[in-house]
């Protein structure tokens, strides 16, 4: 495992130390790894949403949506609930 040294302003250092006191993280490295994992998940989620937006934009002109027809089709396919 690689080692990195990070400099923090005092208020951020105090924040990290307070997060360690609640017992969720064993040490600063655990907390930083957690933050990095959360950021990775966020970036992946944004990329997924952007891909869906791009696919939607590339799918052509919008068409009118008939909600009653949609409900009837869903009931036919999945049964009335």
Detailed description of the structure:
- The chain is built from 3 helices and no strands.
- The termini are far apart.
- It is 68% helix and 0% strand.
- It has one domain.
- The radius of gyration is 24 Å and the shape is elongated.
- The chain is mainly alpha-helical.
Which range does the strand content fall in?
under 5%
Coarse morphology = elongated
Mind describing the biggest β-sheet? none
Helix/strand/pairing category: mainly alpha
Count of DSSP strands: 0
Low-confidence stretches: none
Summarize this structure as a short list of keywords or feature phrases.
81 residues, mainly alpha
Concise synopsis of the structure shown:
This protein has 81 residues and is mostly helical. The protein has 3 helices and no strands.
Q: Secondary structure elements and their pairing?
A:
Layout: H1 10-21, H2 28-58, H3 67-78
